[in-house]
Amino acid sequence: MSHFPSSSICFIVIISILVSNSTLLCNGGKTSVYVRKAEKSVEMPLHSDVFQAPSGYNAPQQVHITQGDHVGKAVIVSWVTEDEPGSNTVVYWRENSKEKKKAMGNVYTYKFYNYTSGFIHHCTIRNLEYDTKYYYVVGDRNSMRKFWFTTPPQVGPDVPYTFGIMGDLGQTYASNITLTHYENNPEKGQAVLFVGDLSYADNHPNHDNVRWDTWARFVERSAAYQPWIWTAGNHEIDFAPEIGETKPFKPYTHRYHVPYRASQSTAPFWYSIKRASAYIIVLSSYSAYGKYTPQNQWLEQELPKVNRSETPWLIVLTHSPWYNSYNYHYMEGETMRVMYEPWFVEHKVDIVLSGHVHAYERSERVSNIAYNIMNGECRPVKDLSAPVYITIGDGGNIEGLANNMTEPQPEYSAYREASFGHAIFDIKNRTHARYSWHRNHDGYAVEADSMWFFNRFWHPVDESSQ
Questions:
Q1: Residue limits of the Calcineurin-like phosphoesterase domain (predicted)?
Q2: Distance, CA of 321 to CA of 394 (rounded, Å)
Q3: Which of 254, 325, 331, 427 is the most exposed place for a label (fewest CB within 10 A)?
Q4: Catalytic residue list contains 329
């Protein structure tokens, strides 16, 4: 029998413990070992090239598109002209077609304190063909600008489609890295699910609305070519009675139109769309959602409409997270969770995307719906009918990273990291989708966190062992 010195035995025991712990971490509850260098978030100056207006008199700028109907056969094209209203017409045509069509839009302006907006155009192009590339032109004869987009495939259960996911973007140097990484990701998102907090104009004196203009010019390089699906965050409220601004969401609602009426919503802050094999529900954390409110009544009627044989993937966007293990915005999403979480479990929502907390976190499939005043059950439990909750408020905004985490890490938290980044949700068919999150400080294709999603309706097996 061999005899080991006591120091060797101690070394073996320590190694065994480390190996054991690393195995446990792989099964969930992981806080990333990557620690981003503490850096101040700095906004890019107004003269930055990413903010430059296009040349030419009254040239259209801040061009962006979003889905324009419920099923993906329409597109809302939006742009701004600075000098005069100019043309409110969009000329568009299918790739390899000589037949050009026109759609007429409307022009809006607004005032906010001492700011007067340019002329904001919104034009809905309807009756488009599925899975088709279109070119479109906005502007007058002397300042026309040409862009393109591709419509989604026809709605169906096994239609593959790839979504990019971003939130809390702002317009800092880090924001530019996030957008660049998304644009250069080889997985090539076809549309962006944006979970709120766009320009952060309200972080400036008098909610400087010039920063709404610069932000829209900044994201035009993506948002003019693929639809961004908008969610309103707290930085879109722009409620400032101290300067006489008492109408919430004024800049946001003038600049970013969404097809809310197509899903029988009564306000642009909550609505739904179908896109390929996904059914996307957008909710508002900052509109009334209690019993008897319009948002509550709409959602109660909306969820039973989802036909999982047609659109298997049920995705919800909201700004304030329901499960959050960072010491920021504590409990802000709790009342909405209490109201709506039982519905999400009942209808087997696949994934809930949120922002607000300026970091990244992915949950296990858990629910906290057992509690009542008699049973005292008040801890989240594993629930294979529940969504995965992803907090992705890590776009790069001026307020910086949320890097103070609660300890110990809760059991419901599968992975968390205080870094900026973006995510990809790549739907393969009705049963499988691949999800990946990419931190800014790695290469474009490096996955800092990833998992296979198994559809809750068609393939509701446990993914937590990945």
A1: 162-360
A2: 13
A3: 331
A4: yes
